[in-house]
Amino acid sequence: MTPLASLTRLHKALSSQVRLRIIAMLRKGELCACQIQAVLGLAPSTVSRHVAELRDAGLLTERKDGRWVHFGLAADADPGKILGEEVLGADPQLRADAAVVDRLRRVPVQILCDAGRDIDRVSAIVRSGDG
Prior knowledge:
mainly alpha; three-stranded antiparallel β-sheet; globular
């Protein structure tokens, strides 16, 4: 791929608020696809399309662990440079996403998937001690 084609692919990948939210979510470490789906509230196929764009642009890595697929930022993908540090700290949507991600990181992925990626249901399961 030529340098211009690579740059075009990168800018195309960054031209979506959903994909920028995914990049922001991953700044503290990898997440399972179902965790990303739970935060975004989007269908698995839609999230798959978005992560494919980011992966194809060289921004994400993918790791399979049993039935789960985990995504992380590529080594050279710096969210502070991509999004701008001022956006990361000031945007209310990114702050809300970060709060949900922090909650989800405390729940085993299997519980989240078994609960249909319903964050409220997961919270109830965890509170009841069934998880």
